[in-house]
Every structure is written in C-alpha cells, then in structure tokens.
Design a protein that fits this description.
By secondary structure, this protein is α/β, with parallel strands linked by helices. Helices cover 47% and strands 21% of the residues. The longest helix is centred in the N-terminal third of the chain and has 24 residues.
Length: 243
C-alpha cells in the first residue's frame, strides 16, 4: 500500500488534516517518545545529516515538518546561517519548538511557523538548502511535496531528507518488527494518550518508499544526484539531492 494511503485515523478526512490532529495530540509527549524510541540515536541521525551539508555555506535554510524544532536548532548552531525557517502543520508542535528556540537564544536566526509542504508560502528559489527529518512519510502527496521543495530551492542547492526505514537484514528485522509493531505502540498509548499515533508510526515506515524507490521519486520531481545512505542497520536513511 502507498504511504499516502496510510492515515493516522480511520476516517475520510485528508491525510494532512489527520496528521495535524495527531501531532497536536502527541506534541507534549513527542520529544520524550523520540528519545525513548530510538534510545537517543535520533540525535546522532540529525547530526549525521547536518555533517553532510556542513562543508558548504548555506545562508537561508528551510526545515520542512520541523516539529518541535530540533533539526532547525541544530542547523542554526552548526552551520552559521543567516536564517533558518521551520514549517509544520501542527500548531502544538510549533509552540513547543518556539519555546526551545527562545531558550537557546536563537530567535534572531530561527523562525518557526505553520506551513503545508504541498503549498509552501515562499517564492521560487528562496533557499540554499532544504531539510526534512522524519516527515516525508506524512505527506499527503510525496511527489508533490518534493516538487514544492524543488521549486523553492535555489539552483545548485541541496535537499537533505532524514527518514525512518525498514532494515533489510534477516537477522535484525525480526527484532525490529517486534519493537516497532508491539512495544512502541504500547508505550506510545500510555505516554501520549493517543491510541493510534504510535501504531501509525510502524505502518507508515513500512509503506514509505525506501532506498532507490525514494531517490527515483526525488529524480522525478526534478532533482539530480539523488543518493541514499542507510544508518544504524537500516533503521534510518539519509537521502540527498541537488537542484
């Protein structure tokens, strides 16, 4: 099944509306669950993504599906950009992110706001670099989302996508399936109080295009030099491409 057809809730609303509701509901528990689910490795994955773009100058960076702003804050710290703009569907997530930005003293660089990845509120060629961490599997339309990224990216600019993925190893996969399909949903329901959010997580990971399937979609959207790099036994993948 295509990832666009995997929804957080079992109703007829648009996926983007369901995703917004889900993240508003789990926003207070989101950062805790991220650390707990990955044993803190999600921080290392973000750092790996930032290292891939640290050798170049990026004045204006867009972070799509910014959530509570962890990647936007890291980009501002490590890359010395002029601006980092983070957009997300969820007001609940953005509000937490804004507090974190203020606490870090980065509000002169980082701006977080509401934005739809399929209709980004920016002119063509506005950014040197675009990032998205753990968000593309939540897109209403994956190809359309990549086309919007391509539109607002400057020529020569880089897109960096960090997304959860399914291990290919026959040794690792049984343990991964047990953990993601049983343990995470159980703990997620207890901590976040949302019955579906952490069941939707493994379902969407299993359905999202991975490896060469994902880079093919990026190429179809207009990007070049699309490559993928698996991390931590294939449980996460970094995708990069240029305009």
């Amino acid at each position: 099944m295509q990832v666009e057809n995997i929804n957080p809730y079992d109703d007829n609303r648009r996926k983007s509306d369901q995703v917004r509701e889900m993240f508003d509901a789990i926003a207070p528990a989101y950062d805790f669950m991220n650390r707990a689910m990955t044993f803190g490795i999600d921080k290392l994955w973000r750092r790996s993504a930032v290292k891939l773009i640290a050798s170049e100058t990026h004045d204006d960076i867009l972070d799509i599906a910014t959530g509570t702003g962890d990647l936007a804050i890291l980009l501002a710290r490590k890359l010395d950009p002029l601006t980092v703009i983070g957009v997300d569907l969820s007001e609940g997530m953005i509000e937490i992110g804004r507090k974190k930005v203020l606490a870090e003293g980065l509000d002169d660089i980082v701006t977080l706001g509401i934005g739809d990845c399929l209709q980004l509120p920016f002119p063509d060629a506005s950014f040197d670099c675009i990032t998205c961490a753990y968000g593309v599997r939540n897109f209403q339309n994956l190809l359309a989302g990549y086309r919007e990224m391509h539109r607002v990216l400057r020529p020569g600019g880089m897109v960096v996508i960090l997304e959860l993925s399914t291990p290919r190893s026959a040794v690792v996969r049984p343990f991964y399936n047990l953990y993601t399909r049983h343990l995470i949903p159980t703990v997620g329901r207890l901590v976040s109080k949302d019955v579906r959010a952490y069941s939707y997580l493994p379902e969407s990971i299993a359905a999202v295009p991975q490896g060469t399937e994902m880079t093919a979609i990026m190429t179809e959207a207009g990007f070049r030099e699309a490559v993928h790099r698996p991390l931590t036994f294939g449980t996460c993948t970094i995708y990069t491409a240029r305009k």
